[in-house]
C-alpha cells in the first residue's frame, strides 16, 4: 500500500515537472551552440502583442512575439562571418534568409511568435493532409509581402548563423557560374526549393532528395516537371508542396537546367 502511494506521488511529481517544462530556442553561431529558454528570451527581447493577417490561417491573429531583427542582431555578435540565417524546423523544413536581406531591413516587420495570449499556441496550421501546431516558435510578419523574404517558418526549433557555401558545399560544382541558365537556376533553387528538398543529401528534409541515387530529371520528363513545379496540387491532393505560379516559364526552365547539370555531380 505504501509503495503504491509513493508511486502515485512520484508520478504526480513527474507530471508537475513536465507541466513546468519551458520551451527553448537553440541558437548556433559558428561552432557555438546554446539553448535559450523562453523566459530568458523574453527578458532580453521585450515581448509584444502583435496582430497579423496570418499567411497560413487566412485570418487575423494576435500573437505574443519577440522582435526578430533585434534578436538576430544580438546573435550575430557571436559570429560576424555569417552570410545566412537558417531557421531549422522540427519537421525538417529549412527556411533561410541572407545577411544582405537582413541588413537591408527586410526583416524589420518580422517577429518570433511563441503563443496566443500566453506562452503556447492554440491554432493549428494546415500542412498537406494534416493540421500541425506551430510550436515551439513561429516566424510571422505584420507585412504579408515579407513572405518573399522569409517564408513564415513554424515549428522553429533553432536559428543558425552560417556560411552558406560551407554548410551546403555539395549543391555547388566548379564552373557553374560560367553557365548563365544553370547559375540562375541555382539561385532560384537555393531560394525556392532548398527549404524542403535536398541535393546530394544537403538541404531540407520535408521533401524528397532530388539527386542521389537518381536525379529527378533522370526519371521524370521535363514537361511533367514543369507542370508539377508550377502546381503540385494538380497532381496530388493536399500536397505539402506549394504552388509556384509566381515563377515564369523561363525561371522554371532555369531550375531544370540546374537540376540536369547536378546529375553529373552526384555525391557518393
TrEMBL record:
Pfam families linked to this entry: Cytochrome_CBB3
Residues in Cytochrome c domain copies: 180-263
First and last residue of the signal peptide: 1-19
SUPFAM superfamilies in the cross-refs: Cytochrome c
Keywords, in A-Z order: Electron transport, Heme, Iron, Metal-binding, Signal, Transport
GO terms of molecular function: electron transfer activity; heme binding; metal ion binding
Protein name: Cytochrome c domain-containing protein
Amino acid at each position: 500500500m505504501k509503495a503504491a502511494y509513493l508511486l502515485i506521488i512520484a508520478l504526480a511529481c513527474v507530471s508537475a515537472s513536465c507541466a513546468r517544462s519551458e520551451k527553448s530556442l537553440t541558437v548556433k553561431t559558428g561552432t557555438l551552440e546554446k539553448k535559450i529558454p523562453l523566459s530568458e528570451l523574453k527578458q532580453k527581447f521585450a515581448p509584444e502583442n502583435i496582430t497579423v493577417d496570418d499567411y497560413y490561417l487566412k485570418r487575423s491573429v494576435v500573437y505574443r512575439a519577440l522582435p526578430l531583427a533585434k534578436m538576430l542582431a544580438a546573435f550575430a555578435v557571436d559570429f560576424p562571418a555569417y552570410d545566412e540565417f537558417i531557421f531549422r524546423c522540427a519537421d525538417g523544413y529549412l527556411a533561410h534568409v541572407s545577411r544582405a536581406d537582413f541588413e537591408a531591413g527586410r526583416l524589420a516587420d518580422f517577429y518570433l511568435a511563441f503563443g496566443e495570449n500566453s506562452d503556447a499556441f492554440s491554432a493549428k496550421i494546415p500542412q498537406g493532409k494534416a493540421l500541425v501546431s506551430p510550436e515551439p516558435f513561429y516566424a510571422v510578419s505584420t507585412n504579408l509581402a515579407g513572405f518573399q523574404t522569409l517564408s513564415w517558418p513554424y515549428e522553429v526549433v533553432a536559428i543558425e548563423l552560417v556560411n552558406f557555401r560551407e554548410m551546403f558545399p555539395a549543391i555547388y560544382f566548379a564552373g557553374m557560374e560560367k553557365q548563365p541558365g544553370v547559375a540562375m537556376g541555382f539561385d532560384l533553387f537555393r531560394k525556392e526549393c532548398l527549404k524542403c528538398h535536398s541535393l546530394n543529401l544537403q538541404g531540407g528534409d520535408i521533401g524528397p532528395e532530388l539527386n542521389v541515387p537518381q536525379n529527378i530529371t533522370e526519371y521524370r520528363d521535363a514537361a511533367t516537371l514543369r507542370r508539377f513545379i508550377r502546381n503540385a496540387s494538380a497532381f496530388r491532393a493536399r500536397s505539402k508542396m506549394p504552388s509556384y505560379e509566381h515563377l515564369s516559364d523561363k525561371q522554371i526552365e532555369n531550375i531544370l537546367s540546374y537540376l540536369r547539370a547536378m546529375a553529373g555531380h552526384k555525391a557518393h
